[in-house]
Amino acid sequence: MEMEMEIEMEMEMEMRSTEDINIATDITPPLTPLSFSLHNTHLHTHCSSCFSLITPPPIPIPNPNNPPIHYCSLHCSTSHSSIPLSSAEHHLPSSSTSSLLRTALRLLLHRHSHGSTRLNHLLTNRHLLTSQNDDDVAETVRLGALTMATAIEKQNGCSKDGGTLEEATVALCAVLTNAVEVHDNEGCALGIAVFEHAFSWINHSCSPNACYRFSFSNSLLSRESKLRIAPFTQNSKQPQQIDSGVFGSSSEFAQEGREISGPKLIVRSIKRIKKGEEVTVAYTDLLQPKGTRQSELWSKYQFICCCQRCSSLLFTYVDHILQEICVVCGDLSGLRSNYKFFRDMTDRRLTDSIEDVISEYLSVGDSVSCCEKLEKILIEGVDEQLEGKAHSQLTLHPLHHLSLNCYMTLASAYKVRASDLLSGDSEIDFNQSKAFDMSRTSAAYFLLLAGAAHHLFNSESSLIASVANFWIGAGESLLTLTRSSGWSKFLNVDLVLSNLASDTKFKCCKWSLMDTFRACMLNGQINSQDFENVSNEFIHSVSDITRNVWSFLVYGCQFLKSCKDPINFGWVMSKQNSLDVRAHDIKTGMCYTHEPVNSIGFRGEQDYNDHTVTHIFQLGVHCLTYGGLLACICYGPHSHLVSQVQNILDHKNDFLFS
């Protein structure tokens, strides 16, 4: 019997739906962590129990042995303060203490072990994580476990014991395998947490049907949502009965109305899920190409992803596009025969160049240099030469994952440039004019990023969380542009406000996006068919509006001028200059030329008119509303991001020349 139990516990577990689940549905109640810890950088500013920001920050008390611990309330202190003392973490040397080791020590407090393969029902992956002597992960486990074992022995007042080191190794491997990064409402990584099997047994997919969010409230757990999943072993037909042990389950805690410390986690569907279907989430960035995802998953978790997206015989359209290299000029014959070699070589060179620029920007803060260097890379790419043949100029496809990274950085950098200009005291009129140009370019990059990601989202709906953030960013930047004082130099402000007030088509909002967003806010759910319909209406609407303002937004930026349409990417499709002939089996090949293009009817800065700002305002509201709808699907109606969108929409008219 013991042998059968050990074999069963070593089998890979998965969580499946116990009912048909619609899109935008909470799959679990708020789950509480088994173990958790803030990162060292946040120990002075956040509550060590619920991870909420402490305002004002507490005055730190120096302690040579271990970092300080602070709480936001008596409740948090009462529920959590005994854990650091009991876990032996105060015996960790200051040079070694980390959220990883603290979390592993805390996990051992109520250990419920099943040999070396599982701890508290959680897979440890110990054999994989420790089998490579020269591997960085194996070295991290070896040194970390030794440090933990020493701290435990000091706590217990005993001599070195092989059993203590074994326990420390198992706990550390369990944390490395199961811990998730806990992010605040702004996306900042606060710490790590290990959750019970209701979450930790949810497997990874590069095309997942669920995502998760965090809650930092220390109030009673919600009794409204229920656990809609159950554990199964692979190929089994019946759910596995798991003894909850000393921890119980979060759903049981919720029913008892108990208050528990730690950041909460809720799993939510982003697709329709049939009864009996496996529920999956993403462990990595889905906007990275297959090779990068596989490398990261192996490095962190020691497994090779075999999901449908990764197992496809040919690259999916999204994975093909995310790494596509384009030929601006040169001989294609030699390049096609060595496509993979030149693609990988070009990708490495461009990756190194872009990462160097972004790293320099983050460390030095020179936004002007960052913009110039990144746009030069986007326009010029790299030159390659085959033996005995002319140079070929290779560049990134506009939807390449590095291009998306550049758009994101450029949007931020131009925004910073605008802010820096407005904060200057000299040449106020000149600075306001330049700041207006920088804000305009920033908004264009935000819109290009959102449109590019949405194009990929049409083929891979699991990208919904990223797309939500990008549309919200585009909406905010466009509305911020309408607030700029730079408009007053060219426009009759009173006339613009009058036009907006009389714009009955926009005011009545005959398309259903706003109504759908409000309905989703009200009940937290949306019908799949309604979502598809409103998405189609949204793209149609923003395409129409964008045609009226894109050439204005990109004026003065050579790279953006070459991007003819940020919503419809048909302009990059052509069979002539594709490197990879196999791509034609997936989608038509890609070519891309950087030809400065001015749309018909736009003659330059003299072509400002009263309708331009009206269209930008409308476009901003559309983008923000749709992004809010996507965020509501991913994170629920009460999430911080959705509340942020709702607040802006409630005061959207404040963005006009305020």
From TrEMBL:
GO annotation terms (biological process)? methylation
Q: Where in this chain does the entry annotate a coiled-coil region?
A: none
Q: Return the Pfam families for the record.
A: SET
Q: Which Gene3D superfamilies match?
A: 1.10.220.160, 6.10.140.2220, SET domain
Query: InterPro entries given for it?
Result: SET_dom, SET_dom_sf
> What would you give as a GO molecular function for this chain, any one?
methyltransferase activity
For the SET domain, which residue ranges apply?
A: 190-283
Cite the entry's keywords alphabetically: Methyltransferase, Transferase
Q: Which SUPFAM superfamilies match?
A: SET domain
Give EC number(s), comma-separated. 2.1.1.43
Looking up PANTHER family in the UniProt record yields: PROTEIN SET DOMAIN GROUP 41
Q: Can you say what this protein is called?
A: Putative histone-lysine N-methyltransferase chromatin remodeling SET family
What is the taxonomic lineage of the source species? Eukaryota, Viridiplantae, Streptophyta, Embryophyta, Tracheophyta
